Amino acid sequence: MLDGELISMENVVFRSYIWWCGVLTLKMFAMSILTGLWRFIKATFANPEDLMSPKLKVKFDDPDVERVRRAHRNDLENILPFFIIGLLYTLTNPSTFLAVNLFRAVGISRIVHTLVYAVVVVPQPARALAFFVALGSTAYMALQVVAAAF
Amino acid sequence: MLDGELISMENVVFRSYIWWCGVLTLKMFAMSILTGLWRFIKATFANPEDLMSPKLKVKFDDPDVERVRRAHRNDLENILPFFIIGLLYTLTNPSTFLAVNLFRAVGISRIVHTLVYAVVVVPQPARALAFFVALGSTAYMALQVVAAAF
Amino acid sequence: MLDGELISMENVVFRSYIWWCGVLTLKMFAMSILTGLWRFIKATFANPEDLMSPKLKVKFDDPDVERVRRAHRNDLENILPFFIIGLLYTLTNPSTFLAVNLFRAVGISRIVHTLVYAVVVVPQPARALAFFVALGSTAYMALQVVAAAF
After folding, report:
1. Do the beta carbons of residue A12 and residue B128 sit within 8 Å?
2. Which of A140, C53, C124, C143 has the fewest C-beta atoms under 10 angstroms from its C-beta?
C-alpha cells in the first residue's frame, strides 16, 4: 500500500486510530466540564468576573478543583502527542494486530488514568500503571516513526 | 471521493480547515508574546535567570500575567484537540456548508474567547459563551469521527 | 505532485517532518520522567495518594520540580502546534531545502530550550534565543499555510 492510501476508512488501523482520537477528545472535554462542576460546587473561581456573589474571592487552591486540573494537564502532556504519533505510526503501515492493540492500550489506560485520578481516587500504583502503559505504547510508536524516517 | 483525496487544496473543507489551523496557531503564539509583555511590564519573572535586576525576586502571582496564562492554557485544552479532530472530520467527507461553518465557529469563538479573557475583560457570560461554542462544535466533530469509525 | 501524494516516505520533506515529530515526542516524554525523578529526589508530591511516607505532606512549590514543569508546559505551547503546522506546511509542497531546515531549526532549538531550562540552567539569553528560533520558524510555516488556503 502507498502511504497516502493508508489514510482510508478501508484501513482497519486508521479506523481504530480515528475511533480513539474521537473518544479521547470527548474524554478530555469531560475534564473541562468536571473542572467547571467542581468550581461551582466548591465556589472556587479563578477570575473576578466569574464570582457569583460579591462575598466570594478568587481562589486557586481548592484540592478538588486542582486535582481535576492536574489530571487534565496530564492529558495534554500524553494524549495530545498520541494524536499526532498515532497518525504517523498508522502511515508506517504497521501490523494491524499490533497497531490496533497499541491504540486500545493508550485509549483504555488514559480513561483508567482519569477515573483513578479525578473521579474515584484509587491508591497507587493504579494511576502510575495507567500512566506508564499509555506512555510506553506511545513511545514505542514514536520510535517506529523515527525508524521509518531513516 | 476517496479519503486520501480529501487532503487537497481542491477540497474547500480542507482549505477552510488549514486556514483556521494557521490562524489559531498564530493566535496561540500571540499568547506567549502577551505573557512575555506582561512579565516585563509587571517585572514578574518565574526564573532566577530571568530577573533583570538583582533587587527582583521570582514571582508567581501577578494577576495580569496569570490571567494570560490561564487563557493560554485554555487554548491548549481546546484548540489543540480541534487541530486533530478537524483534520479527521475533514476525512469523513462532511457537508461543505456544515464543515466550513463549524470551523468558522471554532475559529471565531476562540478568538473572541481570547479577547474577552486576556485583552479586554468582558463580564460573563461572554467568555462562557465563546468557550461553549468552540467546545460544542469540536465535540460534534469528534462524535462524527467516532461514528465514521464504526 | 498532488497534495495527498506528499504524505509519503518518498517525500524527503515528509520524512524529515516525521523524524522530528518522533524525536520531539520522546523529548517531551522525557520531561514527564524528569518531573517524576525530581519529585522522588525532593520528596515533593502533588497528591495525598502519592506520598511515600505518612510524615510527608503534599507540596507544590519545589523549585526543581516546578522548573521542569514550566519547561514541559512551554513544550506543550510550542511543540504541539508545530506537530500540526509542520504536517500542513508539508502539504503546501514547500522547497525541500527550506522545509527540512525549518524542521531542523524547530527540533534542535526545542532540544536546546530543554537543556538550558531544565537540565543545566544557562544564563539568558540562551533560553530566549532557543524559544524564538522555534516560535519564529513555526510562525513562518503557519503563515505559509494560511497563504496556501487563500
Report:
1. no
2. C53
Fold observed for domain B3-148:
Four Helix Bundle (Hemerythrin (Met), subunit A) (1.20.120)
Q: What is the pLDDT of residue C3?
A: 72
**A touches which chains (3+ CB pairs under 8 A)?**
B, C
The answer, for B26 touching chain C at a CB cutoff of 8 Å, is yes
Please, what's the b/e burial string for A89-118 (b: 16 or more CB within 10 A of its CB; e: otherwise)?
bbbbbbeeeebbebbebbbebbbbbbbbbb
- Between the alpha carbon of residue C96 and those of residues A92, B70, C100, C102, C109, the distances in Å are 21, 38, 6, 10, 20
- pLDDT value, residue B1: 52
Q: Please state, in angstroms and rounded to a whole number, the distance separating the CA atoms of residues A10 and A77.
A: 31
What parts of chain C have a pLDDT lower than 70? 1-2
Inter-chain contact A77–C76, Cβ cutoff 8 Å? yes
pLDDT tens, residue by residue, A99-129:
999 999 999 999 999 999 999 999 999 999 9
Listed by start position, the domains of chain B span 3-148
Residues in CB range of C103: below 8 A, 6 or more apart: C16, C17, C19, C20, C86
In this prediction, residue A52 carries a pLDDT of 87
Q: Are B6 and B88 in contact (CB under 8 A)?
A: no
Structure-block grid coordinates of residue C70: 514550566
Residues 38-97 (A) with a CB less than 8 A from some CB of B = 46-47, 49-50, 72, 76, 80, 83-84, 87
Whether the CB of B21 is below 8 Å from some CB of chain A: the reply is no
CA torsion C34-A116-B71-B55 (nearest 10°) is -40
Taking CB atoms and an 8 Å limit, are A7 and B121 in contact across chains? no
Higher pLDDT, C46 or A1: C46
Q: Using a pLDDT cut of 90, give the percent of chain B over it.
A: 90
Residue C83 to residue C104: CA distance in whole angstroms: 13
Predicted structure pTM score? 0.96
- CA A122 to chain B, closest CA, distance in angstroms equals 25
Q: What is the pLDDT of residue B3?
A: 72
pLDDT of residue C4: 72
Give this complex's ipTM: 0.94
Rounded-to-integer distance, Cα A67 and Cα B22, Å: 33
Cell readout for C131 is 524559544
Chain B residues near residue A91 by CB distance under 8 angstroms: none
Side-chain-side CA neighbours of residue B38 (13 Å): 20
Amino acid at C118: A
When pLDDT is cut at 50, 70 and 90, the band that residue B5 belongs to is: confident
